[in-house]
Amino acid sequence: MRKRFSITHPFYLLILLGIISISCFIFALSVGSLSLTFSQIIQTLQGNGGAVAQSVIFDLRLPRAYVAFFTGGLLALAGMLMQVLLRNPLADPYILGVSGGASVGAMLAISLGISSWIAGSAFVGALLSILLVFGLAHGRGNWNPSRLLLTGVVIASGWGAIINFILSLSPERPLKGMLFWLMGDLSHAHSEQLTNPILPVILISGLFISFILGRSLNILSRGEMQASVLGISIKPLRLTLFLLASALTAVAVTKAGSIGFVGLIVPHMMRLIMSSDHRWLAPASVLAGGSLLLLSDTLARTIIAPVQLPVGVITAFIGVPMFLYLLNRGYHQKDET
Amino acid sequence: MSLLHTEKLQVSIGNTRVCNDLNIECQAGEVWGILGRNGKGKTTLLHTLAGLLEADSGEIFIKQNNLNDLSRKKIAQQLGVLLQHHDDIFPSSVIETVLTGRHPHINQWQWESNADREIACRALDTVQLSDLTQRPVNQLSGGERQRVSIATLITQNPNIMLMDEPNSHLDLKYQIQLLDYMCNDARENNKSILMTLHDLNLTVRYCDKLILLLGDGKVLAGKTSDLLQEDNLQLLYDYPIQRIDTENYPLFIAL
Question: Which end of chain B is more exposed for a tag (fewer CB within 10 A), N or C?
Answer without folding.
Answer: C
